[in-house]
Amino acid sequence: MKNIPVVMIIFGGSGDLAHRKLYPALFNLYEQGLIHDNFAVIGTARRPWSHEYLRGQVSDAIHETHTEVDENDVKDFTSHFYYQSHDVTNVEHYVTLKELAQELDDRYSAQGNRLFYMAMAPRFFGTIATHIDDQHLTGSGFNRIVVEKPFGRDLKSAEELNKQITASFSENEIFRIDHYLGKEMIQNILPMRFTNPLIKNIWNKGNLKNIQVTFAERLGVEARGEYYETSGALRDMVQNHIFQIITLLAMPEPENISSEAIHKAKQELLESLIIPNAEQVKKDFVRGQYAGSDTTFAYKKEPKVNPNSLTETYVAGKVKFERGPIADVPIYFRTGKKFKEKKNRIDIVLKHINTPYGQAYSNNITIEIDPKSRIFITINGKKISEEGIRRENLDYTFSKSELAEVPDGYECLLHDVFVNDSTNFTHWSELKRYWMFIDAIEDAWQKENEAGNPDIVQYAPYRMGPTESNHIFESPTEHWIYE
Ligand code: BG6
């Protein structure tokens, strides 16, 4: 693997994301030789850490995520880390940062390449982008920036942030990260759709009854009440992860598998995304909040949550496109906190057919993303030694050893940033459409809230979310496959 020279600057170097995800992922890329001798990482944050302290933290992060490591490798890897105490609003601090980056560039022969990573509270993204620009932090080689979610909180703020970032970076240098696009089973959707005649040929309105995307979590908001109050399930999960998955499920076949062709096909689809009006929002969307029980707090009682909060911890809804291979097929989604279990899955439901055997089951194709990586297709066959039809699963499950080979989503995506492959990142044209859809729902909800009749249901924790979501289906013969 090619050794890529670079100076990487992580804004939010003392944070949870850097510790849990970025440092272990970078270490794996170092072990593979993608970054090796010619790289330096500057971690920045407000805390007054030293280089040594950061190196200790990076070493801890590696030991917490790896069972066996070569201590010499850890030592060499962490020696490439530098810490710069940094107040993102202080212009002078960018001058110091720029000098340090240049010094490290010389020391490690990084060829003027810079990689910026925004891994801190999103309210600072715009400020950082502005100062990268006005203090000319970009290098003389390649320049790339990775931006964590959320990218704005509505279309207007996303446009503003995009303007700030595009002052220094062009669209192909901006990597808007969505960690779901780094998941193995999500990356499997397009190959599965377009390499199997069995699947490709039925992927149309004539054969598909609906598609159902469920992203369920057992955890509540935990310590993230403050952030979550500004977000809610719709912005936290639907605007990004769920919409990207829906796009992969509904997009037309790309001309080839280059990043350009894939984004082009996505864009083509998204131009035909149907934006719901207030009436449709009322009918096709359900918002909910988890209630409490003997053993667990209600959302409203979580730390840093407004006791009268109208923030949704659950949302279910319907998406449709006017064009594309499954134009007009309803795509239902639901996501929520405090479900009975962690489960991310996609159910593709085929229409029933008339059979000479009488009533048979329809086929469903299920893609399970978490906790297992698995695809299974329900299939009908003859009952053994008796009349009638039975249903079995055709199963494509990852073995234990295959699972062990699957890299973490962040490792995969960071790798892509280093090799300049933006296939699995969100393009501005996609993000824009997603926000248009989300804004329509948020506006309708806001109006209900202001009129004093918010339609938000409370749901029992550790079950399947509010039963009201059973009413969003277009026909009485439809229901959630995963129950
Ligand atoms: C994040 C959300 O983007 O995704 C969290 O902010 C959520 O609220 C998380 O818990 C779920 O990700 P995963 O990979 O654990 O399914």
UniProtKB/TrEMBL annotation:
Family matches, as Pfam families: G6PD_C, G6PD_N
Record domain Glucose-6-phosphate dehydrogenase C-terminal: where: 191-480
Gene: zwf
Classification via SUPFAM superfamilies: Glyceraldehyde-3-phosphate dehydrogenase-like, C-terminal domain, NAD(P)-binding Rossmann-fold domains
Family: Belongs to the glucose-6-phosphate dehydrogenase family.
Originating species: Lactobacillus amylolyticus DSM 11664
Catalytic activity: D-glucose 6-phosphate + NADP(+) = 6-phospho-D-glucono-1,5-lactone + NADPH + H(+)
Top-rank lineage group of the source organism: Bacteria
Keywords: Carbohydrate metabolism, Glucose metabolism, NADP, Oxidoreductase
Name of this protein: Glucose-6-phosphate 1-dehydrogenase
Domain Glucose-6-phosphate dehydrogenase NAD-binding: 9-188
